[in-house]
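quick q for whoever's on today - can somebody do inverse folding on this one?? i tried earlier but teh output was garbage lol. C-alpha cells:
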C-alpha cells in the first residue's frame, strides 16, 4: 500500500546485512553480495513469489460467489505484496535483529544452541504465515 514501507524495510535489511558482514569479517565484495542477496532475494524476490502465489490462490479459491447485483471482488496483486511486507517485518526483527544479538549463543556447538536457533526460525516462519493469513481474512 505504501511504497515507502518497502524502501524502509529494504534499508533496514541492508543495514542489518552490513552489521552481519562487519561482525563476521566479510570482504568488501562479499559484503556487497550479502547485502544485495538479503534485499533482492530474501525480501523482494521471495516476496514477489509468495505474493503471486497467495494472490492466485485468493482469487481462484477463496472468493465467495457474488450475486448478480453486487460488484465482483478480487484481491489486487499490490495488496498481496503489502500483506507480505507487513508479515515480513516481524520476521526481520526475529531473524535479523534478534538473531544478531543472540549470535554468540547460537554459534556455540551445543544441542541447546541448535534447538534455540530452530525454535527461533520455526516461530518466525509460523508468525509470518499467521500474519499472512490475517491479511487475507480482513
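ok took a stab at it. sequence:
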Amino acid at each position: 500500500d505504501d511504497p515507502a514501507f518497502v524502501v524502509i524495510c529494504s534499508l533496514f535489511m541492508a543495514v542489518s546485512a552490513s552489521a552481519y558482514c562487519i561482525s563476521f569479517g566479510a570482504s568488501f565484495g562479499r559484503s556487497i553480495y550479502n547485502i544485495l542477496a538479503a534485499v533482492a532475494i530474501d525480501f523482494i524476490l521471495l516476496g514477489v513469489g509468495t505474493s503471486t502465489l497467495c494472490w492466485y490462490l485468493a482469487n481462484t479459491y477463496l472468493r465467495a460467489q457474488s450475486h448478480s447485483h453486487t460488484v465482483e471482488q478480487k484481491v489486487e496483486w499490490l495488496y498481496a505484496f503489502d500483506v507480505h511486507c507487513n508479515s515480513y517485518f516481524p520476521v526481520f526483527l526475529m531473524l535479523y535483529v534478534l538473531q544478531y544479538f543472540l549470535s554468540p549463543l547460537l554459534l556455540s556447538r551445543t544441542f541447546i544452541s541448535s534447538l534455540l536457533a530452530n525454535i527461533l526460525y520455526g516461530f518466525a516462519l509460523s508468525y509470518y504465515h499467521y500474519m499472512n493469513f490475517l491479511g487475507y481474512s480482513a
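fwiw Helices lie at 3-23, 28-61, 77-101, 103-106, 111-136. also The CA atoms of residues 10 and 101 lie 20 Å apart. so keep that in mind when u check it
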